[in-house]
């Protein structure tokens, strides 16, 4: 079975492409990571005349937008803030679906085709199955990167657009992960958070031992720092159509992993599938659904405790984490559809679904990417914090606008008694006004690296990152990073020494909205 996970093909050493680039090649801009932000960065730089190489770690570009997230998240942000090349991407999707305007809900395979069209038209060189092995630096300048497949690439400016920030880390750039304490940056939303109602389900096994994935309440206090990150899950694409693929039984299937579900169903036989996982119909064709972890469910797609060491893990360990999440997910769906302890109504309901046959066709209809909601975050020239979103919303070096709510999924499951547990870490803070994102958020400290931009694992506190961390905003940061990179190449300057006014003028010419004063943000004026 082909395994197309983000990090699992390191040892295969194959490059799936229409041509074979030389073992060592030089480009103006090297983008590491074909996430939506990376694709947009590569296209933006190429449109500026740069010779651009895009290195993607799987065999598919588009990150989560081609692995089950079919939304621009416009239901929880001000969609009019989406501008420039990202808006063009959504407009192209709209054209595909027969609309005169942008499509903010879309299918994964349609998004991938659109990304590939943009890359081809811009003349971007694309290499798949590419994992950075080492970084060669001279002083603060990255000279080249070597990959696990033996290839080496030289560039004038590099962009790390991965969800994990491996290029950034190997280049010696300061970074962190997890959650700061409330005191570190004076953020009321920071740190460990006990805000949810306890769930009536025992977090202990029949022998009185704490179940896997749980921690004791006595080890935690409100507002303290934590090195754990938001839980991960796969965004399955399900279907009730006749061509759906039944949920397979994973080789490592263990129904004992779902003891919480067994107990829930025994006490609540009326439970439905939508009580366990979120099902989004969006504007998909009839009978097709996107899924997500259900925040307040007793058990769902989120594999709590499974990602604890992911941010700093090596590739082989990340592969094991990926495989474990996949086994958890397949096992959960198989359990619901087949286990005799599942009430008949729920079992039959689950059997009416299967994997959508028109998605992820070369991966047994299973998503390519694990939903890594957060991993590393750069500690760069400026750290975006809570106050930059809610209070101090203007920046002299603004390169785009952000407006998504501050959104953190639960981080861990905490036993609060012998009969109850609580999901800890949720943040869901509404934003009614946009804020300006500083160029310094994507630039490292000049003493550490002078030719690298980081638009995805950007410089932010955990709270600040929880608003940036959606694909539509990462695409906007990627757009600005790509244009800035091409300018740095032309001007032969460190990325930190670009004249901000020149960068902003260039961004405005490309249709990028930079100012919170651009209009009255009341939804009455359509910027498109």
UniProtKB/TrEMBL annotation:
InterPro entries (alphabetical): FAD/NAD-bd_sf, HdrA-like
MF-aspect GO terms: 4 iron, 4 sulfur cluster binding; metal ion binding; oxidoreductase activity
Short name of any one Pfam family annotated for the protein: FAD_oxidored
Keywords of the record: 4Fe-4S, Iron, Iron-sulfur, Metal-binding, Oxidoreductase, Signal
Signal peptide region: 1-20
SUPFAM superfamilies membership: FAD/NAD(P)-binding domain
PANTHER family per the UniProt record, alphabetical: COB--COM HETERODISULFIDE REDUCTASE IRON-SULFUR SUBUNIT A (PTHR43498:SF1), FERREDOXIN:COB-COM HETERODISULFIDE REDUCTASE SUBUNIT A (PTHR43498)
Signal listed as a keyword: yes
Protein name: FAD dependent oxidoreductase
Species of the source: Siphonobacter aquaeclarae
Keyword Iron attributed: yes
């Amino acid at each position: 079975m082909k395994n197309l996970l983000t990090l699992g093909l390191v040892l295969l050493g194959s490059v799936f492409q229409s041509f074979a680039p030389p073992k060592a090649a030089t480009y103006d801009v090297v983008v590491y990571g074909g996430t939506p932000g990376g694709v947009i960065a590569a296209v933006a730089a190429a449109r500026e005349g740069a010779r651009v190489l895009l290195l993607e770690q799987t065999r598919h570009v588009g990150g989560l937008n081609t692995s089950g997230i079919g939304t621009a998240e416009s239901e929880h942000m001000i969609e009019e803030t989406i501008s420039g090349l990202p808006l063009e991407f959504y407009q192209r999707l709209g054209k595909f679906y027969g609309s005169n305007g942008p499509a903010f809900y879309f299918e994964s395979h349609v998004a991938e085709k659109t990304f590939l069209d943009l890359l081809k038209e811009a003349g971007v060189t694309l290499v798949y199955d590419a994992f950075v092995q080492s970084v060669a630096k001279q002083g603060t300048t990255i000279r080249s990167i070597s990959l696990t497949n033996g290839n080496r690439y030289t560039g004038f400016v590099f962009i790390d657009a991965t969800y994990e920030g491996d290029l950034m880390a190997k280049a010696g750039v300061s970074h962190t992960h997890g959650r700061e304490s409330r005191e570190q940056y004076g953020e009321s939303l920071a740190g460990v958070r006990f805000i949810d109602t306890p769930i009536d389900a025992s977090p202990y096994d029949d022998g009185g031992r704490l179940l896997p994935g749980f921690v004791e309440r006595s080890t935690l206090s409100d507002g303290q720092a934590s090195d754990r990150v938001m839980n991960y899950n796969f965004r399955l694409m399900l279907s009730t159509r006749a061509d759906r693929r039944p949920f397979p039984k994973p080789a490592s299937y263990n129904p004992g992993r779902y003891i919480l579900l067994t107990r829930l169903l025994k006490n609540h036989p009326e439970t439905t599938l939508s009580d366990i996982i979120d099902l989004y119909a969006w504007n998909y064709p009839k009978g097709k659904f996107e899924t997500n972890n259900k925040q307040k469910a007793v058990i769902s797609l989120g594999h709590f405790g499974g990602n604890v060491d992911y941010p700093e893990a090596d590739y082989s360990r990340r592969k094991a984490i990926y495989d474990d999440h996949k086994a958890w997910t397949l096992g959960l769906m198989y359990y619901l559809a087949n286990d005799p302890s599942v009430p008949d109504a729920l079992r039959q309901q689950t059997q009416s679904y299967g994997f959508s046959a028109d998605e992820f066709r070369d991966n047994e209809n299973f998503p390519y990417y694990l939903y890594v909601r957060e991993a590393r975050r750069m500690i760069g020239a400026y750290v975006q914090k809570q106050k930059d979103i809610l209070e101090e919303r203007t920046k002299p070096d603004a390169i785009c606008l952000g407006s998504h709510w501050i959104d953190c999924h639960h981080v861990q499951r905490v036993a609060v008694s012998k009969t109850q547990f609580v999901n800890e870490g949720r943040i869901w803070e509404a934003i009614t006004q946009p804020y300006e994102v500083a160029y310094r958020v994507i630039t490292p400290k000049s003493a550490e690296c002078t030719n690298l931009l980081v638009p995805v694992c950007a410089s932010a506190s955990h709270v600040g990152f929880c608003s940036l961390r959606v694909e539509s905003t990462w695409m906007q940061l990627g757009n600005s990073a790509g244009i800035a990179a091409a300018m740095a190449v032309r001007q032969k300057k460190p990325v930190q020494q670009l004249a901000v006014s020149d960068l902003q003028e260039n961004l405005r010419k490309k249709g990028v909205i930079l100012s919170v004063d651009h209009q009255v943000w009341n939804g009455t004026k359509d910027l498109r």
